[in-house]
């Protein structure tokens, strides 16, 4: 069967060039980078080269890069580290309603530990307002964390303007750039951020490895773990050498990709969005129409459950997603779509298509061949359909009237 992978925001395959490099550090170059002998020196050197490559992708200095176990740890490390060390200065921290759970749940945990947490709303495009941010800041605010680009709806936030506002008030600024890295230019000086999260498996590297950028001079409590002196006392534990080497290589390749690939992906994305909106009725785009990731398309199909669409697509060999990988599997609609004011019953019908290096125009054509009949069949079966056009404009009143929505 034809297989089309349309879920690059959930994870990406490891590029062959990356796997090849990684392989050497599993077998031949296996030394512990802390060891002083030949084997240790060999991996230490490779580790520092990888650090330079990661730093180069985001315009940082190598010593500002701390390797760890991935995006989740980076978000935890950044937020926890800044909030805790600056507690004597203030206990107010700010984030947005559309963050990844690695950020949102860290804020919630800190909320239970005596911090005052502000969660900023977003508009219908998933955009945080600069005015809302400015109004939320108090003299007790020590940290703002806003993601660069949304994994769920692809919206790109005005990080540069927000970070400038934070700097003016001496507040540390963290951004989760896991989805934007390698897809649009990400430069820490241009953005003006103090901390930035990176994950390997979203940029054609392996899972379980990532990095946190921390600007020199940032007041930040170091390692979350108690242990050895690795990463200059900032992250204890023997380094994941094969993973780090792979992350370095993936970043190096990502620099090259930033030339033509985003334009190619944006072409495919625009073709997909236009085809879906032109050919499938009662469908809307979610996220910002223009300020969005070049590989990201997301929709709500009315009168259908996202999960039924996913399963039908999967039977045709197409791998897509409904909301984030963390929320699919549960029947709650995505917190991101709800925060954007999308009604429950519509949020249930969400589909996310995220393109990558392996996708071509033929994949879009294949999707447009199989998707309309799937939608037609599911709508014919759907009890939501009986609500007809009324549902389109309604909010949760219609949702409550429909028996199939709240399960
Ligand atoms: C995937 C992802 C994470 C989590 O990264 P892991 O490496 O999977 O822990 C965090 N934030 C965003 C925006 C992501 O897309």
Automatic annotation (TrEMBL):
**Name used for this protein in its record:** Cysteine desulfurase IscS
tRNA processing among the record's keywords? no
Q: Name one Pfam family in it.
A: Aminotran_5
Q: Where in the cell is it found?
A: Cytoplasm
Q: Could you tell me which SUPFAM superfamilies the record lists for this protein? A: PLP-dependent transferases (SSF53383)
Q: Active site located where?
A: 326 (cysteine persulfide intermediate)
Q: Which cofactor does it need?
A: pyridoxal 5'-phosphate
Q: In which pathway does it act?
A: Cofactor biosynthesis; iron-sulfur cluster biosynthesis
Q: Where is the Aminotransferase class V domain?
A: 4-367
**Listed InterPro entries:** Aminotrans_V_dom (IPR000192), Aminotrans_V_PyrdxlP_BS (IPR020578), Cys_deSase_IscS (IPR010240), Cys_deSase_NifS_bac/arc (IPR017772), Cysteine_dSase (IPR016454), PyrdxlP-dep_Trfase (IPR015424), PyrdxlP-dep_Trfase_major (IPR015421), PyrdxlP-dep_Trfase_small (IPR015422)
* The EC number(s) this enzyme carries: 2.8.1.7
Q: Where does pyridoxal 5'-phosphate bind?
A: 71-72, 151, 179, 199-201, 238
Question: What PROSITE patterns does the record point to?
Answer: AA_TRANSFER_CLASS_5
PANTHER family in the record, alphabetically? CYSTEINE DESULFURASE, CYSTEINE DESULFURYLASE FAMILY MEMBER
Catalytic activity field? (sulfur carrier)-H + L-cysteine = (sulfur carrier)-SH + L-alanine
Q: Which family does it belong to?
A: Belongs to the class-V pyridoxal-phosphate-dependent aminotransferase family. NifS/IscS subfamily.
**Which is one GO molecular function term here?**
metal ion binding
Chain residues that bind [2Fe-2S] cluster: 326
Q: Which Gene Ontology CC terms are recorded?
A: L-cysteine desulfurase complex
Say yes or no: keyword Flavoprotein present: no
**Positions where N6-(pyridoxal phosphate)lysine occurs in the chain:** 202
